[in-house]
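REQUEST FORM: STRUCTURE PREDICTION
Request ID: SP-0412
Submitted by: Lab K.M.
Chain count: 1
Length (residues): 186
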Amino acid sequence: MARNVNIESGLLLIADPFLQDPYFRRSVVLLCEHHKEGSLGFILNKTLDMGLNDLISDFPEFDADVYYGGPVQTDTLHYIHSLGDLIDDSVEVSKGVYWGGDFDQVKFLISSGLLEPGRIRFFVGYSGWSAGQLALELEYGSWIGAGMDANYIFKSPPDKVWSQAMYNKGDAYEIISAMPDYSSWN
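STATUS: Completed
RESULT:
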C-alpha cells in the first residue's frame, strides 16, 4: 500500500489497524493545519463523557457531544463546523468543513437557534506533530492518508468513522475495514 501522501489541510489520517498508541488507536484525524513548523488536527471519532455546558459556564444550553481532539493542550476547546459563511474568521479546511472562527458568533447562532448540534463539533485538545514528524509517521505506516468527506463529521456515527473511512479507500482497505478491534490483546 502506497505511503506517499501529500500532507496538507483537509487530509484525513486513518490510524493503521495495528497502531497501539492509546491516544490514536483506531482514530481518524482531520488535519486542519500543516506547515514546515508542524501540523495540527482533531480526532473525529472519540467522544468524551461530558457536555459542552460542563466545560463552559456562560455558554448557551446546547445538546452537543464533546470530542477528544488529541493529547495536546487538553485545557483548550476547538470546533469544526459547516457554517463558514456565517462565522467570521473560520478557515475552510475541506469542502464544506471549517475550523474555528468568531466564538461570540457561535454562541449567538446557538442561542438564536440557528446552529444545530449536527453542524458543529467541539473538541477538547488537539493532535499535533512537530516539523517532519507526521511525514515520518506516514512513511512508517502509522497513518493512512485519505480524502476528507464532510459526512464523516456531520453525518456518520463516531464509532463507524474509522471503518467507513478505511472502506472508502477501496481495494485491500475494504478488507482491513472489517477487521475486529482486539483491544483486549494489548
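NOTES: The chain has a mean pLDDT of 91.
Reviewed by: T.R.
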